[in-house]
Amino acid sequence: MDKFCENCGAPRREGAKFCRECGQPFPQAEAVPVEAAPKGIEPQVESTVPVHPELPVAPMTTEPVTEAASTPAAEPTMTEVPAPSDVTPVSTPSVEHSAPESVDTPVEQAAPIQPQPEASVEMPVSTANDASQAASFTEVPPATPVPNPVPNSFPPVVPPAGNIPTMQSVNGVNGTTAAATPTPAWNEIADALESTGKKKSKLKLPLIIGSILIGLLLVGGAVWAMISLNASSSNPALIYVKDKDLMLSAGKKSEPVKAVNKWLDIDDSIKEDYLNVSYYDGDSGAKGMEFSMLGDGIGRWIKFNKSGTRMFYLGKVTDDGTANLYYNDPSKLAKSKKEDIEPGERVASNVSIGANRYAPFQISESGDRVLYFKNYDEEEYSGSLYINDLKEEQLIDNDVYGFYFISKDESTVMYTKAADSDSYNYDLYIKSLHGKGDKVKIDSDISYVVNYSDDFKKVYYVKNNGDIDDLNYNSLYLKEEGKDKQKLISDFTSIESSDQNGVFYFTRTNEKKTKLVDLVEDDMAESDLKITEPHYSDFEYEDTYDVWGYEYTSTEVDYDKYYEAYDLYMDKLDRDSLRSSLKEEEINTTSRQLFLYSAGKEKELSNNIAWVNFADVANKSVIYSKADTEKGPVGKIKMSEIKSLYDVRDRFEGDSSDMMGKGRYIILNDGQEQEIAGEADDYYSFQFSGNGKKLYYMEGAASSTSGTLVAYDVLDGKLSNRKVVDENVSYYMILSDVIWYYKDVKDGKGELDSYSDGKKTKIAFDVEVGSTSIYPEDNTVLYIADFNSKRHMGSLYLKQGQGEAVKVNDDVSFYNYDKGNHLFYITDYNDSKESGDLWEYRGKDQKKLIDNSVEAMLPLRVGYNF
């Protein structure tokens, strides 16, 4: 599982669903992004949360109930094959971790559980350009590092990128980070944040952004999400759009059927607002983006139950952000001979699709219950949450924020409402989804949820003291069913990693304030005491001159010496003023301490930390940089060397706050500190293998776009046997202990290789970065080579097992894969018409034209794209 944010390079905290620096969802697979200097990164992969032993059920404080919500399911993403002009080889530097400044922003560490932008679950449609926009689910704290690409029942709150269905297209990386791991659609989440909180005042937006991080940081609970069509079928139906109609193709013998007439005949503004589709005017770098974005977008409006017997979809979408919700039977549709099918059974009207643009509604695994919002106020980020059993709808609560969590057994919902106080915090509730029981308040005025057990009987959350100037203003609480809340950790800065069993890596910040005057040696004090204000009389002299034989005497002023003295005097006045300011002004220097909380006790692991690069409670490992105090200035700066306060700040504050750190250190199994890497201006991205027996990382100059991929053996709690895997690597990803990577990347193309058991295998040359999708459970790899950026097309290859790669077709812009030979792809894509020909690949020399003028495909399968 990746340990860094793929978007900004910030370190991933164990159990975190979103990056605390930029909000990007984390994958839960073992994908590894390249990490850069002071900002971290991280991809995603699905994993299961450790199940808690059942706790005694005791009554909690209850109140009359009103509504609840289910965690938004992330949507599979369509990925495009990157056009060289579009692909910006992600320079490893962009893959690093958070810089020390994060210490000053504790709120970011664990996102508050406020209304969040919808998590997105995107289905697989591959593209090179869309790599960075791959769908994302909320991530679950990994119980084991081994990726589990296919979601069981509900995908995690924000499924790891690896679990994100990906439609590959030819637009690939699209200039985003250089992480070589499944890519989540954080761009969409960021857009959602912007759109849902565009005019919010009162400081709520920052909290909401944090909230999305936290909501997704939570794992444990299952998420009512979109289930891929292939969840139970070996030959799933394909959903696509043609002429604004929603089309369905199922079975090799049946012809496509029109499922909904003019389903997508809506204004472009609605697509932009609710499907995250942007329209470009002739920008070659954006070719094909509409196709992939639209495919990802419709994945939010269409969901299937696990058995594939019910297809839920939104229809009759209005400008005010509401729609009707319907469901139909795909198998009956496929057999229908009617050309135009009327909308299916209507489940609900006036569903608020703006409450969570990435998951406007959620369905249970069986498809017999649906959760959605009504009357959602995008200014207040809240609305009325309903559950519907397809017979009647029941109000869960009013004024619920647009993000919620569902327990693993789908019996309980956890959600937040605005706190009664004016603190901009939230009140946390849980409520049963069966019957009409009362809601139970967990606590008031919480900042964010950190973790919880699958059944919500244990909830770990953070409250703050309201003093934003206090760097250690957070406290961690546990609320256990039937018991009073318990404060576990007081006065901390950030939680770096956590699990459901109450184990946490966390930091505290030590702040030292120093008066600037104490940093300056006044070597001018004595001489300045002798300097007084000059007067003309001080520089007068007698001058004698002769006129016609007569001698005259006059009093003159030596202006040169006067002005010289006056300049010295003015300099002295400036220094006096500076002395006064130095006595008033001060600088703050900070350092952090790293702690482990386990079994109810705190243990200090290290101090003088610059920042934490990686932390994983599950692997009992933490990697960090130390504050480089040795390189700080020695002694005081002289008064004669400065002209202003800034000269002092630049000398001392710059050196103390710009603590990129000294080296990289690791602690394994809570043992001794060990140095693993050197220079602070290099970048590193760390990732453990699935079995935890190897540590991989990228190292190289922060200014470079590539680096050296290195492996260590993990033996007896220590690192040993450093080995170079390969040089000049730009992107890499780890799946099932196999490393996939690009090397020698130039103009968005490079050599695609794999590494396993000490053996390197060359897969292909001239592969478009961002166009590769890997399906480890099928031992299948798809990629696009020989890509022509002007035509937005390349050659699609399929490699299965140890066999040679097979060319599927030339002139391919997008592909959509399920198991075996079930592969769909788009050829002859026309940028002006934003459509192309849809083909099905059925094995060597077996291809069938399904339809032409296809505008979008609903991704079929979860895949790892990079």
UniProtKB/TrEMBL annotation:
Residues 61-80 have a biased composition (Low complexity). Keywords: Membrane, Transmembrane, Transmembrane helix. Residues 48-109 are annotated as: Disordered. The chain crosses the membrane at residues 205-227. The keyword Transmembrane helix applies. This is Zinc-ribbon domain-containing protein. It comes from Paenibacillus lutimineralis.
